[in-house]
């Protein structure tokens, strides 16, 4: 977990970015660019704003991660629906299928049966009085220490935000829809980041640009990285220039 740069970690350092803006003030990444470790109870009891955004501990959240046990699995034509619980509550998780998924990925997904512990990365959604999570990634937990670490992170986040004298002002920006070329670039970026998963700091943006030089422009790579971060597929670590994939978390 040394590479995970969560909202609580950033807030406890007095700012959300170690790099200041042009005017010398600290920049803050948007809620879409942060990953918050939460419990299911925090999701179910979150404040839902008129624009359907979620607030936990008076701070906006978009990308969330939690650990839980699968209690029910329902296969649909285009998605897999999981009902999961973590001891604090239960929630439905919707994981949309991808036609490009390999047989290896599909085989691992079939292993996630009832009573399997999993980690979920996704976004909370509210429909009337019902809250669920639209998942980017659902993967089985193989090291059960991860469960304890996760709840420690949840407690740390909660204490950081509830004891802070000023709540974080996080504004959400939306990412555009990627075209076919953009999806290919996204896949290349994620593949390269995951291949360097052993580094706790992740991969520097210049390394990614150099890796894809001749195939994509530096501007295209930077834009794609911003979109991937907004969509929860990767996150920044020690600064705004190092990235890790949520699959390596």
TrEMBL record:
Any one GO BP annotation for this protein: DNA replication
Composition-biased stretches (Polar residues): 1-12
Region (Disordered): 1-30
Entry keyword set: DNA replication, DNA-binding, Nucleus
GO cellular component, one term: chromosome, telomeric region
Pfam families: RPA_C (PF08784)
UniProt xrefs under Gene3D superfamilies: Nucleic acid-binding proteins, Winged helix-like DNA-binding domain superfamily/Winged helix DNA-binding domain
Primary localisation category: nucleus
InterPro entries reported for this sequence: NA-bd_OB-fold, RFA2-like, Rfa2/RPA32, RPA_C, WH-like_DNA-bd_sf, WH_DNA-bd_sf
Limits of the Replication protein A C-terminal domain: 171-241
GO molecular function, one term: single-stranded DNA binding
Location in or out of the cell: Nucleus
Basic and acidic residues biased stretches: 19-30
Family to which the UniProt record says this protein belongs: Belongs to the replication factor A protein 2 family.
Record's protein name: Replication protein A C-terminal domain-containing protein
Organism: Phycomyces blakesleeanus (strain ATCC 8743b / DSM 1359 / FGSC 10004 / NBRC 33097 / NRRL 1555)
């Amino acid at each position: 977990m040394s590479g995970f740069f969560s909202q609580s970690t950033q807030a406890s350092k007095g700012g959300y970015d170690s790099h200041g803006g042009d005017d010398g003030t600290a920049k803050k990444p948007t809620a879409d660019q942060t990953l918050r470790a939460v419990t299911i109870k925090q999701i179910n009891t979150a404040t839902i704003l008129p624009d359907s955004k979620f607030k936990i501990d008076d701070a906006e959240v978009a990308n969330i991660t939690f650990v839980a046990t699968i209690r029910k699995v329902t296969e649909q034509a285009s998605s897999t629906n999981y009902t999961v619980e973590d001891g604090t509550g239960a929630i439905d998780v919707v994981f949309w299928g991808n036609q490009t998924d390999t047989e290896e990925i599909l085989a691992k997904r079939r292993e996630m049966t009832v009573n399997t512990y999993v980690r979920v990365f996704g976004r909370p959604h509210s429909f009337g009085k019902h809250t669920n999570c639209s998942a980017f990634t659902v993967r089985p937990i193989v090291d059960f220490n991860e469960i304890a670490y996760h709840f420690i992170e949840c407690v740390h986040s909660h204490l950081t935000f509830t004891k802070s004298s000023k709540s974080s002002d996080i504004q959400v920006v939306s990412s555009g829809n990627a075209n076919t070329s953009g999806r290919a670039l996204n896949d290349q970026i994620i593949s390269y980041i995951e291949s360097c998963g052993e580094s706790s700091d992740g991969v520097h943006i210049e390394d990614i640009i150099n890796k894809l030089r001749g195939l994509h422009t530096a501007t295209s790579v930077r834009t794609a990285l911003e979109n991937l971060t907004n969509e929860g597929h990767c996150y920044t670590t020690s600064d705004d220039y190092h990235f890790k994939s949520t699959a390596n978390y």
